[in-house]
Write a structure and sequence with these properties.
binds nicotinamide-adenine-dinucleotide; 11 helices; alpha/beta; Rossmann fold; single chain; globular; seven-stranded parallel β-sheet
């Protein structure tokens, strides 16, 4: 499918991943990109660069996925919708009712509006959280061992899309991101915040603190790779299904910490280990083959390069503030 000259709505486009997606979409020659966001976590700073392009705008009449009529208006004439808006894992943990409203009802609104306006394809941001804690390689057929409100909301979103496709033929793709990192990440991500905290300590010349032995391991994927996966999914002829968006490589928190120490040039500093606090998931590794086979996606950014980009962005950001 061609997204050249198309009109695109990025729901949650002012967030971490959404803002990178908007920037990459500009290279696809779209006619217009509209950002739909209520800015509960997204920021104007995230989209400042993209907003310099006259083809990018913020939907002027509102930006909340709880408002179905506003969504319907925002999707008028739109070809592709990328749905990234959601409350994050810890927020859903603390506020399950809010999680229900935004991630369940809000996602239902997005799907319903997309179906009513007859868009060409909806790309939905799901998560590896659907798999829960599992010590084996996760394929798209692996069982949902999730036990969190957040993961439940992603499973529900996926299932609603399946049902809409079956009932009305709505074209969609669900992308299950593993652990995203990169410039513009913040401190709210339950697994990723550790990277920012390690860098804070290194900036202060203090030993980074790891909870437990740092053996918790995840499949870390660079944010620009995730943005590219969204575009490949939209452009492909695939019109339904769920796909892992991962690297297929597992890295422990201890290894990340060692790498950050090296990249920051602070090899004089030793790690400090403390007793483990609550962790939702201790192990996660995805199988990337299905996305590669069906729409040609492979993660390209090596961890050391992605982390260096993150460090450079933090340093730049500190200078601006
Ligand atoms: N970051 C990760 O590691 C990761 C991993 C797996 C899945 N995901 C999913 O990918 C998507 C994007 O993640 P992110 O890290 O960029 O998160 P993010 O919080 O930075 O972005 C989400 C955006 O949605 C907006 N939003 C929240 N509630 C809204 C509402 N009611 N109406 C309109 N906008 C609303 C926020 O303001 C924010 O800009 C999310 O759906 C998330 O669940 C992220």
């Amino acid at each position: 499918m061609n997204i050249n000259d198309s009109q695109i709505l990025v729901v949650g486009g002012a967030g971490f991943i959404g803002s990178h997606l908007v920037e990459q979409l500009l290279a696809q020659n779209p006619r217009e990109i509209i950002i739909y966001d209520n800015f509960c976590r997204g920021t104007l700073a995230n989209i400042a660069k993209a907003m310099e392009d006259p083809r990018v705008s913020i939907f002027p009449d509102g930006g909340d996925i709880l408002h179905y009529d506003v969504l319907l208006q925002a999707m008028d004439g739109v070809d592709y919708v990328f749905h990234l808006a959601a409350l994050w894992l810890l927020q859903c943990h603390e506020y399950p009712e809010a999680a229900f409203e935004v991630n369940f009802r809000g996602t239902f609104n997005v799907i319903r509006a997309a179906n009513a306006t007859g868009i060409k394809k909806l790309i939905f941001s799901s998560s590896a959280s659907v798999y829960g804690n599992a010590n084996y390689i996760l394929t798209e057929e692996s069982p949902f061992l999730n036990d969190t409100f957040y993961g439940t909301s992603k499973i529900t979103g996926e299932e609603m899309l399946k049902a809409y496709h079956q009932r009305y033929g709505l074209p969609y793709i669900t992308l299950r991101y593993f652990n995203a990192y990169g410039p513009r990440q913040d401190y709210k991500g339950v697994y990723i915040a550790v990277i920012m905290k390690i860098l804070d300590r290194l900036d202060q010349g203090l030993p980074p603190i790891l909870m437990g032995d740092g053996a918790q391991s995840y499949d870390f994927i660079y944010v620009d790779d995730i943005a590219r996966a969204n575009i490949l999914a939209a452009k492909s002829s695939v019109d339904h299904g769920a796909f892992n968006i991962c690297t297929g490589k597992k890295t422990s928190i201890r290894e990340i910490c060692d790498l950050l120490i090296e990249l920051s040039g602070r090899s004089d500093i030793e790690i400090e280990f403390r007793e483990a606090a609550q962790t939702f998931v201790t192990s996660r590794l995805g199988a990337p083959e299905k996305a590669e086979k069906e729409f040609g996606f492979t993660a390209e950014t090596p961890l050391n390069e992605g982390l260096m980009d993150l460090i450079n962005w933090r340093n730049q950001d500190k200078k601006i503030r």
